[in-house]
Amino acid sequence: MNAQHLPSTTHIAFASFIGTAIEFYDFYIYAMASALVIGQVFFPVEDAATQVLNAFLTFGIAFVARPLGAIFFGHFGDRIGRKATLAASLLVMGVSTLLIGCLPGYNTLGPWAAALLCLLRFGQGLGLGGEWGGAALLATESAPAGRRAWFGMFPQMGPSIGFLLATLSFLALSLYLSEAEFKAWGWRLPFFASALLVIVGLYVRFKLAETPAFSKALAQHRTLRTPIKTLLKLHSRPVLLGALAMTVCYNLFYTATVFCLSYGTKTLNIPRVEFLQMLCVAVMFMALITPVAARLSDAFGRKPILLTGCLLAILVGFALSPLMGSGSMLAITIFLSIVLLLMGVTFAPMGAFLPEQFPVSVRYTGAGLTYNLGGILGASTAPFVSQLLVDNGGLVWVGYYVSAMAALSFFAVLALPSAPVKDY
Description:
The protein is mainly alpha-helical and 424 residues long.
């Protein structure tokens, strides 16, 4: 591509942001639907608790698929380039999301409805598994010197904006539709809207060039035939530690947005509209702190910011029971806001921190696999485990669970190196 037609850093930052925003929007509309309606639509009528647990199990399937998506898309991202791979991952996610919106429920298809839902949820996980690693590299491998965390922040902004769009979608449906309309067809509308967003994302990404770091590796024939083999042989330690470091981010987010949404609406009987409004307020704290944490990690290093966030997250676990259990709208909003703010603190530096652990030849695979393995431990089971804990021991045990996950991440971050690999 001619130099004068190379995309600007603004275009690159926007492209890394828009893709993650769309894919996480897709992911989060399912998370909200699983807390509100999936169990009722796709599973037989039993007791309400069993329906909720079944819905949360389908929620977790995508997290099992995400590491597989990271390996699959990472293979091509490290061999042929970041650009085409990112477009393909976005397309897989978009098609899966649209088909979930079209899928008939249990009353029409019987057990096949749940089986097909699981298959499409698996497809969502594959697509998202290939998204984050590529988006983070698109931003950080194009970043000016000394601003890698700032540019790595743009894909990290995607989840908060995607979540806000998802929450506003369900909030609007709750305001304008009856409960029967919402259950019958209204919940499907955000899934249909995803198709339009995916078209926008594909258009933006097809106008990109390859990143300078990968273009140089390609020109020097430093790409690998099987990146995953080299990654696991030479770089398994940062993969495992990085996955544990990500646990705090995932656990904080999905405890607040899936478990607390389900608990608040079904156990505390808070109207869905009001709880979604509370989440909209809370996620703004995540969006606002993300660029601040990125700036601080460029100025003071990734590890000090991450370790501070983990320590605070350990403490916030002890606040879960008194604040959520109070039933007070103000107390619950404060709790949700603190949790999502700490999610932003621990999440923002990861856009630079995880890719910095790997050389360019395995960076797409390494960063993506690390990020998504963390989701299996930190997110896939978080709503399910939290529901079991609250059913059998009470809210205080959910808080202990949050604190334990944060402590695990603290020690993992402590064990990882601060300096990036030499070929960044």
